[in-house]
Amino acid sequence: MPDQVPHSIPDLFGRHLDCGILNTVWTSDLTYLATGEVWLYLCAVRDRCSRSVIGYAFSEYLHTDVVETALRRAVRFRAHDLAAVAYALNTRPRKSLGWRTPAEAYNDQLISLQRAGVATTG
After folding, report:
1. Which residue has the higher pLDDT, 41 or 100?
2. Potential cystine with 57: which of 19, 69, 75, 85 (Cβ 3.0-4.6 Å)?
3. Contact yes or no for 68/30 (Cβ under 8 A)
4. In angstroms, rounded to a whole number, what is the distance separating the alpha carbons of residues 43 and 69?
């Protein structure tokens, strides 16, 4: 049955996910693996420029913790690079419309991850 009230999620990247600069676009995915005894859930975070996995986490249970752990590992792995990118972005002239820099948006995202919540899809 189709959704009676369709929603749209804005495509902020215009489907141009590989901009050629490290630490600009990260993507993640969740999947499950059959081990013969239990199901394991794997969350992987990839840098779209290098196409390498920069953070991952396994869990026997599908909770938001597995996503948060994978993201935290990616941040730790790329911490030096992220600090340089944040410095470069934050020292540019600010937009007069009150737009947040990517570093500010990223900081807000990290703060929101610290709050308890439930993840939803769709």
Report:
1. 41
2. 69
3. no
4. 9
Residue 32 to residues 42, 45, 48, 108: CA-CA distances in angstroms?
6, 15, 22, 29
Q: Which two tokens stand for residue 121?
A: 């899809």
Which residue type is seen at 65?
D
Stretch (H or E) spanning 95 = none
Q: How far is CA 110 from CA 51, 106, 118, in A?
A: 22, 6, 15
Instruction: Tell me the C-alpha distance between 98 and 120, whole Å.
Output: 29
What share of the chain has pLDDT > 70, as a percent? 62
CA-CA distance, 50 to 21, in Å (whole number)?
Answer: 8
Q: Which contiguous run of DSSP H or E holds residue 86?
A: helix 79-90
For the segment 76-97, what is each residue's pLDDT rounded down to a tens digit?
A: 888 777 666 666 656 655 544 3
Residue 19 carries which side chain, given as an amino acid letter?
Answer: C
Structure tokens at 32: 């499950």
CA distance 37 to 72: 28
